[in-house]
C-alpha cells in the first residue's frame, strides 16, 4: 500500500507577494547575494505571469500544467513590456524602477485574483499530489535506489548552492580614470595661468576581488602637487574625488602625472598623464595619455578616460 496525500495551497498569492517584498528588502540592503539570485529568477520569469493568469482565469478553466507554462510565457512577455514603458519615463530602465514596477504589477494582479476567486465556489488553487510508498513494503533494491536518488538530489542542490554562493574570479585589475570638473570626459585643464588651479575628478574602481588600500598623487615637474589620504576599496567599490594642481612657472607641454599607489608599495600601481600649458599660447598635447607599458582607453558606455 501507499499513502496518497493531496495538498491544496490556498496561500499562493500571499507567498508570491511575500517573496517579492523579501527580494526588495534584500536588494535594498545589498545583502545575501545567493538568496537574491534564487528569488530573482522566479520573480522575473514566473511571478508576473502567474498573477496575470490567476487574475484572468480564477476558476479551474486551466489545469496546473497549462498555468505553469503560460506563467513562464507571459512573464517573458510582460517584463520586457514594462521595461519598454519605463524607457519613456524620467526614471528609465534601471534596477529600482524595474523592481518597483514589477512589485506593483504583481501586487495589483494578486488583489484582482484574490477578489475574483472569492466570488467562485470552485476557485483554482495549486494542488500537489504525493504518492508515498511505505518503506517497509519496498524491496531491498528499491530501498537502495531510493537512497541513491535522494543522495543525487541533495548533491545537485548542494552544487547549485555552491555555484551561486561562490564568487567567480575573473581578470584582476584596478580601474583608474580622470574626468573634467563637470564629471565628464572633457573640459580637462589644458591652458592655465601661472598659479591658476587645474581641477579634475579622479576615480578608482577596485576589481581585484579583495580589499585594497590605495592613495593618489598628482605630480608635475618632479614635485608632488597633491596627495590623498589612504582609502580602502572592496571588490567592485568605486571612489571618486575632486583634486587640483597649480603650476607657478610658465611652461609649455608640461606633463602632469596622476599616480595611483597601493599602500606599502613605492612604485605607482597605475598612472595617467595630462599635458597642460602654463602661461603660454602653444597648444597642449593629447588631453589624457598613459606612460610606460600602460595604456588608456575610453569606456564604451561612460566615455571615461580609463586605465586598466
Brief summary:
By secondary structure, the protein is an alpha+beta fold. It has helices at residues 12-29, 33-45, 47-56, 64-87, 95-118, 140-165, and strands at 2-8, 127-133, 173-179, 191-192, 197-207, 212-220, 223-227, 231-233, 238-246, 251-262, 270-278, 296-298, 305-307. It is built from 6 helices and 13 strands.
SSE map:
Blueprint: E1 2-8, H1 12-29, H2 33-45, H3 47-56, H4 64-87, H5 95-118, E2 127-133, H6 140-165, E3 173-179, E4 191-192, E5 197-207, E6 212-220, E7 223-227, E8 231-233, E9 238-246, E10 251-262, E11 270-278, E12 296-298, E13 305-307
Parallel strand pairs: 4-11
Antiparallel strand pairs: 1-2, 3-5, 3-13, 5-9, 6-7, 6-8, 6-10, 10-11, 12-13
Helix pairs in contact: 1-2, 1-5, 3-4, 3-5, 4-5
Amino acid at each position: 500500500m501507499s499513502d496518497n496525500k493531496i495538498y491544496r495551497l490556498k496561500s499562493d498569492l500571499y507567498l508570491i507577494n511575500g517573496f517579492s517584498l523579501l527580494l526588495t528588502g534584500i536588494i535594498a540592503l545589498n545583502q545575501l547575494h545567493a538568496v537574491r539570485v534564487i528569488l530573482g529568477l522566479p520573480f522575473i520569469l514566473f511571478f508576473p505571469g502567474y498573477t496575470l493568469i490567476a487574475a484572468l482565469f480564477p476558476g479551474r478553466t486551466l489545469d496546473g500544467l497549462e498555468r505553469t507554462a503560460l506563467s513562464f510565457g507571459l512573464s517573458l512577455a510582460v517584463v520586457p513590456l514594462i521595461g519598454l514603458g519605463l524607457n519613456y519615463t524620467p526614471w528609465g530602465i534601471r534596477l529600482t524602477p524595474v523592481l518597483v514596477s514589477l512589485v506593483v504589477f504583481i501586487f495589483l494582479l494578486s488583489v484582482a485574483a484574490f477578489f475574483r476567486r472569492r466570488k467562485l465556489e470552485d476557485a483554482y488553487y495549486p494542488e500537489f499530489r504525493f504518492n508515498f510508498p511505505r518503506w517497509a513494503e519496498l524491496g531491498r533494491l528499491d530501498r537502495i535506489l531510493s537512497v541513491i536518488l535522494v543522495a543525487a538530489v541533495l548533491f545537485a542542490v548542494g552544487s547549485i548552492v555552491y555555484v551561486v554562493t561562490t564568487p567567480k574570479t575573473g581578470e584582476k585589475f584596478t580601474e583608474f580614470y580622470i574626468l573634467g570638473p563637470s564629471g565628464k570626459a572633457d573640459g580637462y585643464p589644458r591652458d592655465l595661468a601661472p598659479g591658476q588651479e587645474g581641477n579634475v575628478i579622479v576615480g578608482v574602481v577596485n576589481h581585484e576581488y579583495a580589499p585594497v588600500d590605495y592613495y593618489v598623487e598628482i605630480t608635475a615637474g618632479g614635485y608632488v602637487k597633491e596627495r590623498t589620504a589612504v582609502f580602502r576599496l572592496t571588490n567592485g567599490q568605486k571612489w571618486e574625488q575632486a583634486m587640483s594642481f597649480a603650476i607657478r612657472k610658465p611652461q609649455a607641454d608640461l606633463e602632469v602625472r596622476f599616480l595611483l599607489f597601493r599602500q606599502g608599495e613605492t612604485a605607482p600601481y597605475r598612472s595617467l598623464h595630462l599635458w597642460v600649458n602654463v602661461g603660454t599660447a602653444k597648444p597642449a598635447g593629447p588631453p589624457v595619455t598613459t606612460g610606460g607599458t600602460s595604456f588608456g582607453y575610453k569606456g564604451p558606455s561612460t566615455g571615461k578616460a580609463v586605465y586598466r
